[in-house]
């Protein structure tokens, strides 16, 4: 019977072969054309979105590279720089809910294009103070500026300086005070960074959902992976751009560079920080142009034409059809939401359900504390390298961009590769995440032994009589050797004596004669400069003395351990993120990720740079002074105290997060049976605080998005 039916079917198909072939030919040709147009449109969108991800990652990392430059240019403390850095997160939070809710209903490509324009406007605004606040002024003794006029730094014989010259100089200073007193230009940097946060908000949620809606389902994960890869490459170019701009003088193109008497090694040096923002702003404008010409909708692939939902959503619909009571409850819930009762009937029960999951709560706490540690460490890492090892801003940014960032990217990739190759389940992911954090912070502990000692600065870290360390209560810039000089203790124009000791100024070194100009200035007859064996006066040159001979070697050790630490900590990023996805119910995933991102931004992204900056400010030994009075930027830090504060705060926060990670692993072990553990080891997912296997479902799209971290992306 079965054979005859097959023969009948074959006979029928043979009799009707011509018309069937024609119709099928037409449908296949139209389908192929539609597929080509669909693929062409989505690939254009993919290329444009990848370029936008690159642009926003570049501008964000460039801001990190200019932290010390902004601090010196605007004469502000590190704590205020931390507020500026955190303003990006504030801008992002202002409109994230509106964009996430209303953005999907509007023209998504054009909203992304508008976001790029806002982002570029904010980037340009950050650079604007350079064109309005006048030229950069640094402290230098007059003889180092004009070689034709020889002044005594000590000013013991006050008659050698004409009163008219002093009066003119004082009048110029007063005029500058009146100009600066009415404006705090750093506010424009803060507002610009705030605009950057607002502009970047729609890029991630609307861009990723657009790809997921119109890409062929099996290609969706690959496309999203390409976008995330470009997002990782962006910071490399951002720090390299920061390295290039830091070599250029801040007022390049506005002043004669031959008249500049400081070098990039000087603590007062400020690079062309504004130039990089102009470049980043132009890139953002170019990145946004294609989105204005893309359609609101693309033709859906053939595999998705039968249903407007994805395969994952379809599975949930099938499951819901088997549970009529759940379906009825959801219809009731939608009706209540339409009546304006969504907060009571949907939001609060979902929030209660989510916070009732101990794994989610413990992992959220661990992530918040760990991101506090990582964000604070990354924000002030350039400053730490400059102050601890005496490196220039240019070299510091070059090292971070060329060594550290690739190590982070490789670590994230390695974590995902390990998860896939060994079929790591939920318990395995928790163990891998915990092990990564533990060994990463253990390596960080070794950096305490890889620091440089304080430079010998007379009156601050060493006494005027020899190089013996000084206690805080003994610090005094004035001594018998410079008692006959009229010196200011607020100035910072360091000179290096023949004895290897740095003096705050040539005047405080007791120097009474000078020759040369600029960096070639040499001071003579310095009463405070001399060896311990002889009290004979000696000479000094412009600039600080080099740190100890061991410091370059310690810097190399620091780089090696820092790269290994960055890689080790990054390996746990992918397993931790997958653990988060697998331990929540499917219908709560989007809500859980939104709460997770919101908590990270509010409780880590905003406060961490601020209190890290406050802690670093406590290690300052010598503050600069503004021209109109008041405390400026720090000129000299206590190297030992800075090392203990910076690394100690990072390590303490990391250790606390490890305890929460241990608690996550313990809860998972309590809730999983031995059978679940064996399944997990063989590639299946173990129990994760839920009773059904469907609660642990995660698709390949979410796996490929595991390279996400809240400081860069928005997921609400």
UniProtKB/TrEMBL annotation:
SUPFAM superfamilies the UniProt entry points to: Kazal-type serine protease inhibitors (SSF100895), MFS general substrate transporter (SSF103473)
MF terms in GO: bile acid transmembrane transporter activity; sodium-independent organic anion transmembrane transporter activity
Name of a matching Pfam family: Kazal_2
Membrane topology label: Multi-pass membrane protein
Chain ranges of the Kazal-like domain: 475-530
Family annotation (Gene3D superfamilies): 3.30.60.30, MFS general substrate transporter like domains
Membrane-crossing residue ranges in chain numbering: 40-59, 80-104, 110-132, 230-250, 270-294, 360-378, 398-418, 430-450, 554-581, 593-616, 645-668
One GO-annotated biological process of the protein: monoatomic ion transport
Zinc-finger as UniProt keyword: no
PROSITE patterns according to UniProt: KAZAL_2 (PS51465), MFS (PS50850)
Domain Major facilitator superfamily (MFS) profile: 45-672
Main location: membrane
One GO cellular component term noted in the UniProt record for this chain: basolateral plasma membrane
Subcellular location: Cell membrane
Catalytic reaction(s) noted: 3,3',5'-triiodo-L-thyronine(out) = 3,3',5'-triiodo-L-thyronine(in); L-thyroxine sulfate(out) = L-thyroxine sulfate(in); L-thyroxine(out) = L-thyroxine(in)
The keyword Iron appears for this protein: no
Keywords: Cell membrane, Disulfide bond, Glycoprotein, Ion transport, Lipid transport, Membrane, Transmembrane, Transmembrane helix, Transport
Entry similarity comment: Belongs to the organo anion transporter (TC 2.A.60) family.
Protein name: Solute carrier organic anion transporter family member
Name of the encoding gene: Slco1c1_0
């Amino acid at each position: 019977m079965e054979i005859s039916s097959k023969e009948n079917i074959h006979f029928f198909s043979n009799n009707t072969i011509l018309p069937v072939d024609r119709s099928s030919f037409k449908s296949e040709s139209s389908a192929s054309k539609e597929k080509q147009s669909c693929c062409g449109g989505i690939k254009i969108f993919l290329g444009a979105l990848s370029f936008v991800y690159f642009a926003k990652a570049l501008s964000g990392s460039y801001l990190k590279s200019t932290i010390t430059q902004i601090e010196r240019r605007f004469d502000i403390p590190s704590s205020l720089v931390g507020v500026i850095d955190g303003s990006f997160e504030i801008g992002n939070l202002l409109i994230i809910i509106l964009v996430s809710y209303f953005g999907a209903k509007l023209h998504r490509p054009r909203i992304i294009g508008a976001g790029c324009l806002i982002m570029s406007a904010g980037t340009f605004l950050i650079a604007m103070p350079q064109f309005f606040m006048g030229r950069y002024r640094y402290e230098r003794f007059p003889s180092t500026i004009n070689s034709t006029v020889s002044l005594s730094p000590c000013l013991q014989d006050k008659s050698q300086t004409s009163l008219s010259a002093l009066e003119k100089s004082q009048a110029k200073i007063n005029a500058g005070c009146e100009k600066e007193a009415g404006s705090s230009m750093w506010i424009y940097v803060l507002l610009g960074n705030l605009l950057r946060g607002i502009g970047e908000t729609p890029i991630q949620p609307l861009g990723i959902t657009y790809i997921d809606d119109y890409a062929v389902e099996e290609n969706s994960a690959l496309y999203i992976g390409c976008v995330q890869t470009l997002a990782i490459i962006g910071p490399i170019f951002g720090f390299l751009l920061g390295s290039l701009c830091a070599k250029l003088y801040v007022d390049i193109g506005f002043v004669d560079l031959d008249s500049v008497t400081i070098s990039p090694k000087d603590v007062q040096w400020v690079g062309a920080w504004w130039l990089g923002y102009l470049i980043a702003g132009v890139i953002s404008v170019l990145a946004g142009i294609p989105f204005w010409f893309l359609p609101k909708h693309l033709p859906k692939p053939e595999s998705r034409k039968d249903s407007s939902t994805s395969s994952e959503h379809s599975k949930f619909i099938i499951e819901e059809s088997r549970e009529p009571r759940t379906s009825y409850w959801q219809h009731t819930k939608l009706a209540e939401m339409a009546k304006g009762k969504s907060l009571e009937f949907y939001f609060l029960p979902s929030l209660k359900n989510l916070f009732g999951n101990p794994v989610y709560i413990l992992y959220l706490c661990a992530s918040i504390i760990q991101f506090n540690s990582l964000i604070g460490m990354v924000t002030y890492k350039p400053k730490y390298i400059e102050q601890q090892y005496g490196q220039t801003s240019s070299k510091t940014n070059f090292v971070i961009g060329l060594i550290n960032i690739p190590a982070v990217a490789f670590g994230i990739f390695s974590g995902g590769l390990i998860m896939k190759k060994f079929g790591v389940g939920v318990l395995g992911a928790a163990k891998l995440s915990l092990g990564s954090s533990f060994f990463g912070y253990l390596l960080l502990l070794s950096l305490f032994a890889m620091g440089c000692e304080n430079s010998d600065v007379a009156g601050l870290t060493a006494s005027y009589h020899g190089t013996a360390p000084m206690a805080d209560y003994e610090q005094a810039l004035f001594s018998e050797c410079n008692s006959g000089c009229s010196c200011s203790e607020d100035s910072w124009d360091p000179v290096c004596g023949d004895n290897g000791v740095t003096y705050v100024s040539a005047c405080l070194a007791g120097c009474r004669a000078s020759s040369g100009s600029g960096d070639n200035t040499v001071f003579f007859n310095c009463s405070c400069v001399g060896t311990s064996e002889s009290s004979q006066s000696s000479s000094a040159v412009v600039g600080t003395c080099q740190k100890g001979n061991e410091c370059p070697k310690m810097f190399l050790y620091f780089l090696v351990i820092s790269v290994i630490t960055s890689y080790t900590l990054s390996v746990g990023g992918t397993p931790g993120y997958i653990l988060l996805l697998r331990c929540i119910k499917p219908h709560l995933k989007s809500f859980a990720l939104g709460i997770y991102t919101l908590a990270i931004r509010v409780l880590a992204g905003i406060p961490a740079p601020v209190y890290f900056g406050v802690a670093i400010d406590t290690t300052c030994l010598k503050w600069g002074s503004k021209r109109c009075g008041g405390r400026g930027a720090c000129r000299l830090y206590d190297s030992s105290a800075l090392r203990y504060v910076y690394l100690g705060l990072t390590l303490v926060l990391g250790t606390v997060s490890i305890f929460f990670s241990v608690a996550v692993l313990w809860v998972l072990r309590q809730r999983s049976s031995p059978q679940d553990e064996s399944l997990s080891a063989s590639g299946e997912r173990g129990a994760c605080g839920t009773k059904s296997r469907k609660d642990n479902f995660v698709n390949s799209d979410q796996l490929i998005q595991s390279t996400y971290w809240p400081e860069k992306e928005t997921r609400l």
